[in-house]
Design a protein that fits this description.
With 396 residues, this protein is an alpha/beta fold. 27% of the residues lie in helices and 29% in strands. The strands form five sheets. Strands 4-5-3-6-7-8-9-10 form an eight-stranded mixed β-sheet, sandwiched between helices.
Amino acid sequence: MELPEVSQWIFSKLKSLVERTYAENSFYQVFYERHGYHPDQLKSFAHFQDVPVVTKKDFIEFALEERSSSAPGRIRINTGGTSGEPLEFYVDNTAFAREWAHMHWIWERFGYNYRNLKLTLRGRNLGNRLLKYNAVHNEYIVNTYAEKNLLVEQLQKVAWFTDVRWLHGYPSVIAEFCGWLADHRPDVLTALKSGLRGVLLGSEFPAPHYRSAITEILGVPIVSWYGHSEMCILAYDRALNEYVPFPTYGYCEAIPMEDGIQHLIGTSLWNTVSPFIRYDTGDGIKAETEQGLVRHFSILDGRIGEFVVDRNGGRIGLTALIFGRHHAGFEQAKHIQVRQSEPGKMELLIVPRDPRTPLERLKNSFDFSNVEIDVQLRMNNEPVRTKTGKTPLLIP
């Protein structure tokens, strides 16, 4: 399709979404009235720029049902986001099929076939299990918190490393695993590299030091993309930190904000259950646009994973430890931050949604089992902020 046709198709989706949302969603009714906006003003594609930008902070001031609509089979999701602000929402029951259709298009450009065996390293806590086979994606899911020697022994029993064609997971976790193999099991690393075709990096911004480490150790193509749990924007990495968004997935904008930086703004074209309309992702970008469409963008201030150290000296990525587990405590917390003063000990700082929430109740809603770290939880009235007003996940 030519750009004008793409723009017209997107506009028809946006107009329908805004009008329906305003009619059904009490959050957007209040939010638009506060900003003096009404959907009647949306008469052309250019007028979409008049729709107020919404943030995660705006959403969490309202209960989930106040910003959601009923739908058969809707799926409840929570995300912490590495900003440390948890958010709950719903997606429609076809959201994940839509997601995987786009994901497989990205991967297949690099030779991926669903019959290929994957080794997936994310934030999964499998308790006493070292591995779990997922037949849907033909993958062995790794217990991120398992002792690595035991993990390698188990993998050798179920599938020799020469059978693995792809690694998939968080950049920080994959870099750590490959570094451990290089230092402690070079024989296994050699076997892995003999059959490996590439690495699929997701859920974290692929920071250069992670990406460089993986490339140096494995020497295979790296496939990365931009996406987030809110499912507003999905983009594939055409070159190093040059992302091309899918117009069939969501509408992507680059908007200069008060901090002087272009922010990545996304609108889900499909989610009418918990709509995200002109949603500020909080990511700073540099973008090239044409006729109102972002052709590609690069991340200036991405969601870069950080580590804590367990009592054995092992590093655990916070994306895996905090957000990969999707703790029940997300429902009770406005902000989550982490502080570590020494290996094996970690302080979890929580700003609760309700200040009257008992500390013991919060403690029981976070699962750090099978992790060699003593976790202490502390409740704060406000998050710890930097001098520039940011709320980092890992604080000194």
